[in-house]
Amino acid sequence: NDITIKGVNVRYTLINLIGLHKAISNDFNISLKTRIDLKSILRNQITNLSFYESVGDIGLLLWATSLISPDDLNIIIPKINFSNILNKFNDARSENTKELSWLLIGILMASTFNKTFKSSISNLPNKLYKVIRNNYGGNGVFKHSANESLNGKLRSNSGYFADQVYSIYAFVLFSKLMKNEEALLIAEATAQKICELQGNSGEWMWHYSVKTGDVICKY
Questions:
Q1: Closest by alpha carbon to 126, among 143, 107, 99?
Q2: Between β-strands 207-209 and 215-217, what pairing exists: parallel, antiparallel or unpaired?
Q3: pLDDT digits (tens, 9 = 90+) for 127-147
Q4: Which of 88, 218, 213, 95 is nearest to 148 (CA)?
Q5: In what order do the strands lie in the sheet with 215-217?
């Protein structure tokens, strides 16, 4: 009774919605029951879309909506200028691998469930793929971003676990839906690399070198 919950985090709310939906759907052969109203929480996020400040969060919203309530994509579509989305948000302008991968996943998922949405985004999936593809270092590792600031240049030589795992998922999905073999080969190389570098107990490493493909920091 003494626990106090502080702060609100949009992306972790959406990530949890996606995870809970998958668990409730029994995709992993587990039986999970919850009294949490996923659609109600999701619709609250859609209502507050104007407060979103990250292209990655928009990607997560599209991803979650596609899985939980595809019809609500019709509410989201008019609220977002997809033709200018890569210029509007800082994480898109910095070409952050993780956030752009979230957006690519969200757009591809939404395109699968909503034909109107698919016709409204034109060549955006291919544009996103090319930007994320440019962040691939060739040694099984995606760099964190292409930001040209001092901090960005330091990060451009390395990538975090999240940069790898979400780009793998995005590229596999892109390969499947867009019939792109290169995307699948890169996803496979990255998956093999992070599995190769796992710890003795199966731990995922945290920080990787783009130039060498080695582990920089275990956590």
A1: 107
A2: antiparallel
A3: 999 999 999 998 899 999 986
A4: 95
A5: 158-160, 207-209, 215-217
Burial 13-26 (b: 16+ CB within 10 A, else e): bbeebbebbeebee
The residue with tokens 């892109």 is 174
Name 73's Cβ contacts closer than 8 Å, sequence gap at least 6: 62, 65, 66, 110, 113, 114, 117
| Angle, CA of 78, 133 and 86, to the nearest 5° | 30
pLDDT at 56 over 80: yes
Query: Which residues touch 60 (CB under 8 Å, ≥6 apart)?
Result: 10, 11, 14, 15, 18, 102, 106
Cα–Cα distance between 130 and 144 in angstroms, integer? 15
Whole-prediction pTM: 0.90
Q: Which two tokens stand for residue 55?
A: 């292209």
Helix (H, G, I), strand (E, B) or coil at 129: helix
CA–CA distance from 195 to each of 118, 185, 215 (Å)?
A: 34, 15, 12
